[in-house]
Every structure is written in C-alpha cells, then in structure tokens.
Protein 1
Amino acid sequence: MQRFDLKRFRKERKITQKEIARIANYPQGFISAMENGRNATPDAFIKLLSEVYGIADLSSYIFEDKNVAYKERGEMKGKSGGKSSSSSVDQSLVDHIIYMNERLLSQIDERDKTIAELRQTIENLRVELAKQKK
C-alpha cells in the first residue's frame, strides 16, 4: 500500500503536527494517525499541502508501506484484536466531523456575542442621540 510520508514532509519544514492540523482543519489526532499509518492520507489533504507550501510535485513523499498487512488486520506490533484500518479511518472522519462541528458552534457563539454587543451599542447611541435632541 502506498502512503504519504507526512512526518518527513513536516520535519523538513520544521512544523508541528499541531500547525499542520490548524492549517488543514483536521484534528491533531488525525494527523498523528496518518503519520503512523493508522489512517490513509486523503488526496484532498495532499493537494492542500501542495497549495499551501507551493510544491507542485509531492511524489517524492509517496512510499510503499511494507507493514500494511498488520495495519489492515488491525494488528499493531504483532498484537491482534485491534480495530480494522477502515474502522480507524471511519472513526477519524467522525472525530473530524465532531471537531469541525464544535468549532462551528464556537464561532456561532462568538458571532452571537458580537451581535449582542452591537445591539447594545446601537441602543446606547439611540439613547444618547435622544438626550442630545432634548
């Protein structure tokens, strides 16, 4: 199975998982899972890295993962009984959706606070204007 060497890409640019996660709007855990081979790297993610870092050809970061057999069976370092690769990807996608939902809710809360502050400011200005007219 072919994988994208995200860790090498990151290290060469001296950036952290947290920074990559912020840039790509992915949870840091998803970035870690991609680096460790628990999750496939989405093509859209690779395209985003290409655009953000101005690198047209990222093929030098693609490699053949010879350890994919245990990852597909859900066996890590010889231990069996783990989740399958597809379950891991599915869970990562769920985690990403939850993360984005929480982020959107937080932004909505901030927007609502700003609107409330603006309404209060408008009301204060109306009161002040009414006082000046008297």
Protein 2
Amino acid sequence: MKTDLSKILSISGQSGLFRYVSQSRAGAIVESLADMKRTCFGMNSRITTLADISIYTEDGELKLKDVFLKMKDVLGEDDAPAAKSAPEQLKAFFGKAVPEYDRDRFYVSHMKKVVEWYNALKKYASLDFTDPETEDAGESDGSENGAGQEAGKEA
C-alpha cells in the first residue's frame, strides 16, 4: 500500500508520526503509526504534514518525499542511521544521499528528525509514496474549468 505523506503528521511536542483519521469539533483525530492508538489534538497543537516539509539545498528546497526517495536509493533495504548517531555520521550520510543539501541551514537536529521519520515510515508504513500530482489532476481540472466558466460569466 502506498503512503500518502499529506496524511502523515508530525505533531510538535509528540514523539513519532501520526496518521490523520478525521476532523473533530475540538481539532484533529490522529492515529499513532507505532501503536495505532487514536488521539485528538486541539486546534492549538502545531500539526505539520510531511508533504509540507522541505529541506534546504544549495539551489533552493527539496521536498521531504524526494529526500526519502534519495535516502532509499542509497540505503536499499537497510535502515537509516539512528537519530542518536554521531553528528559526523549523519552529515556523511546526508552528504552521500543528498549531496546538494545546504550545510549552513540544514542542521544536525533536522537530520535527526528526517532519519527518525524515514525509519518510522519504513517500519510502520511504506516508502512507496502516492503521487499527489496525478491524484489531484482529475480534481483540479474540474475546479479550474468551473472557475474559468464563472469568470467568463462575470465578464
């Protein structure tokens, strides 16, 4: 089964990753990838989808999905280095997996999160990701046409 990174969440102050289940009156209902327990997080929680995260590169930014795919190319079926690895080991790994990463703005603390997330997805979900461009193409074509028709009516 393919993993949709827009439904995989990182929640500030919480360890691990969560899968979005539903919206509630008080916030979002999520399920831990590790133990499958459901929890509700309020609107004041800082919730970020992995699809919205990028890392800094020398040329701009690289989406986390692309970083994971580059890591998978380097690692094969192996796990990423542990988050508690020495900073030099993490830097060497990212130098091999994503050689264009920005060494001034992509910190070791970020590297630790990325390798934790990679290993969690590998263990509890899948590193085979859905392609949002192909899924959204059918939906956005209809909405773009609808918006264009309405604009034509107003003019």
Protein 3
Amino acid sequence: MSEMKVIVGIPPIYTVVWINDMTENLHVGGVVAIGFDKNNNYMIVVSHSGLGVYDTNGWSLCARNSDLAYPENGYVTGIGPIDGTRIKVVEKNYDNDSLTLSSPDGCWEIKYEDGTIIIESTQQSDSKSGAGQAGPADR
C-alpha cells in the first residue's frame, strides 16, 4: 500500500510517494542463487530445478528453463529477456541456510528462507507535476 504525503509550504505540484512498505513474496523451492541484470529490470533465480527470470515491474515470471545451470565463479548466463547476458549472483550460504542481497541500485532487499523469496522495497519515488520519476514499483 502506498502512502502519499504532501510537503507543506511547497506548491502541490510536488509530492513524495512512499513505497517502502511494499513487500512481495515469491514461492520458489530449492533456491541456490539470485541476481539482477545491470538495469535492475529482471531478477534471475537459480534453483535445483533450473533458472527462472522475474520482471521487477510486478514480479511476474517471464522466463523459465528446467536445464540445470549452477553458478560458476559467481555468475550465471541469462535466459528469456536477458538471454546470453552474464549475471552476477549471490549464492546461498549453506552454513547458516541464508541468502540475502540487495539489487544493484538499492531499490530492493531480497531474502530467501523456507522456500520463499521475500522482496522488500527500500526506496521512495518522487513525482513532479505528474511527470514523475519511476520508483521500483513504477518501472
């Protein structure tokens, strides 16, 4: 749920829209690693069942491949809309059973636990006269 705040003393053409309360849960079992493309448009998930690519604008699954492709030296090769792109990933720490990372632009905090990828927005979006800057939920 987004909350809109009007800044007192500034003409109403400028507002700050807070979206940091946005959380999304994706249910994916057997996650090995997660990463983002350089533009933060896609998140790639590596699991024991293959690769999945999620569009960060709505978190819909946009590509899936059941071929096993585990990270090599911290990278995987993208599929679907990021096909052939070398993507840096963060691998699961099997000593403490955790996987946490931030998107390269800092808009998203990702945590994987118990078969669920928890995605939390960390940013606010500024908009002026309706023209607006796209925040993570608006891209």
Protein 4
Amino acid sequence: MKKALIFLSLAVSVVACKQSQEPKNETADMYEASELSQTMRDMVEYSKLVREQIRNDEQVSPVPEHIWNLKKAEGTRDEHLEDAFQALADPYLEALKGLKTGDSNAYYYSKSIAACKACHSSYCGGPLQVINQLGL
C-alpha cells in the first residue's frame, strides 16, 4: 500500500510538471487607443517638446496638423460630441494659435496647459498627474 501511494505521488508530480512546461497559446486582448486618446498623447509629446524649446529660448515647432482636429477626434465614449467637451477644447486651440504667432510663447504655452487641466478636471482626471508635470 505504501509503495502504491509513493508511485501515485510520483506519477501526479510528473504529470503536473509536464503540464506546467507546455507553452500556452493564450493571447492578450490588446488595448487600442481611441483617436481622441491618441491625439491627446501626441499633445503631451508636443507640449514636452515646446516646453524644452521655450526653456532653451528656441523657436517653437509648428503644431502637428492632426492636433488642430482635436474637436473632431472620436473618443471612447463619444465625449467629443458633447457640448461641454467642445467648449473646453476651444481655449486649448486658441492657445495653440497664440503659439503659432511666435509671440509670448511662455504665456500661450501656459494657457495651453491650463486648458488641458480644465478639461481633465471635468473629463477623465487620470492624465492630470502627467499634465501637472508639463508646467514651465
């Protein structure tokens, strides 16, 4: 009886080890950012670039064209269709127009970051931690 129990334990151990070594064919569901989410990520990268250019007293790079379409970029929950979102996007786009003139870049850059904070105080507060780090 004792030998049978030892044999059974060894057999179970071998089978368990063999199963744990077999590769799994599971695939993870990959997150695909909405058009609005990707645009906002690009806005962060553009803001980082402009911040450094302002700090180094360099000419500010042009705004990437797709950022001008912020109000039309499709959101995950269709927030881009809401009047409140549309109104909150306006100050950001106005600040970018100011950057485009090349005059008072620090002022307009700060206005653009303030616009981002205002919007993300109403919609999706998660990015505020990143936005707060974008100040001059």
